[in-house]
Write a structure and sequence with these properties.
- With 236 residues, this protein is α+β, with helices and mostly antiparallel strands.
- It has one domain.
- The protein contains 6 helices and 9 strands.
- It has a 7-stranded antiparallel β-sheet. Strands 1-9 form a two-stranded antiparallel sheet.
- Strand 7 and strand 8 form a beta hairpin.
- Helix 4 packs antiparallel against helix 5 (194-205).
- The longest helix is centred in the first third of the chain and has 32 residues, at 2-33.
- It is globular and about 75 Å long.
Length: 236
């Protein structure tokens, strides 16, 4: 009888876990195919906004400095080798351990993956500097000055600040001489991933995106439905 009771509880637990996974998948599926801000139209004479993915993390790529917003007083551009008027910055938010301790995806352990997804973990901001835009896995649109400033504000508010209200650089942890890590606000978990962060930003500024997601493909699925604009890099 004891053995049967144990089997019953194990089966019940597995059924609950399976139900949760199915519900999670259904929410993700619906979130992917139901858009937020479906009426968004690009601004032909607005500011260029790019979204890029490395296959896992969605990031925003924007100019380091333009007439609408200047990042140089906020971050530490002198640490970048990529300088000049054509510099772009790629902004991403994500799990601190994965960003800092995993150089290649084959180094990801089951334990770290479980902890990252199912336990709230610290987050970091990652910045890449570009003198040339990536040529693959990148999409483009153009937004109004108000939307662009709103996006920059969302990104800025994702940085953790010190007592002097300055961003907190994590020293000597970049992958190359053209990227940096900073302490971030918020916790990473299965319902709040790097891609959820990007989705929330697009939703806030009124750009078409998935209604909810934790994967980059959902964002790209909806972003591809935005009317294309010509002649990228037009500035206001």
């Amino acid at each position: 009888m004891v053995f049967i009771s144990i089997l019953y509880w194990i089966a019940s637990l597995l059924l609950i876990l399976l139900s949760l996974l199915l519900a999670y998948g259904l929410v993700l599926l619906l979130g992917t195919f139901i858009p937020t801000n479906p009426g968004f139209q690009p601004e032909e004479n607005g500011i260029d906004l790019y979204i890029h993915t490395n296959g896992m993390h969605a990031t925003f790529i924007i100019q380091a400095k333009n007439k609408a917003f200047d990042w140089s007083p906020i971050i530490l551009p002198e640490l970048f080798e990529a300088k000049g008027p054509d510099t772009y910055l790629g902004f991403g938010w994500g799990d601190k351990s994965i960003y800092l301790d995993i150089a290649e995806w084959n180094e990801l352990t089951v334990g770290l993956a479980f902890r990252t997804l199912f336990l709230p973990t610290p987050a970091v901001m990652h910045i890449d500097a570009y003198t040339e835009l990536p040529t693959t896995n990148i999409l483009h649109t153009r937004v109004s000055k108000d939307k662009y400033v709103n996006l920059c504000g969302f990104i800025h508010q994702s940085f953790a600040l010190d007592e002097a209200k300055q961003v907190k650089l994590i020293s000597d942890r970049g992958y190359t001489s053209n990227d940096q890590f900073y302490e971030a606000v918020g916790k990473y978990h299965a319902f709040n991933t790097c891609n959820t962060w990007a989705q929330r930003a697009l939703k806030q500024i009124g750009v078409r995106t998935a209604s909810w997601t934790n994967i980059d493909r959902s964002i790209f699925y909806q972003f591809k439905k935005i009317k294309p604009v010509s002649n990228p890099e037009v500035m206001i």
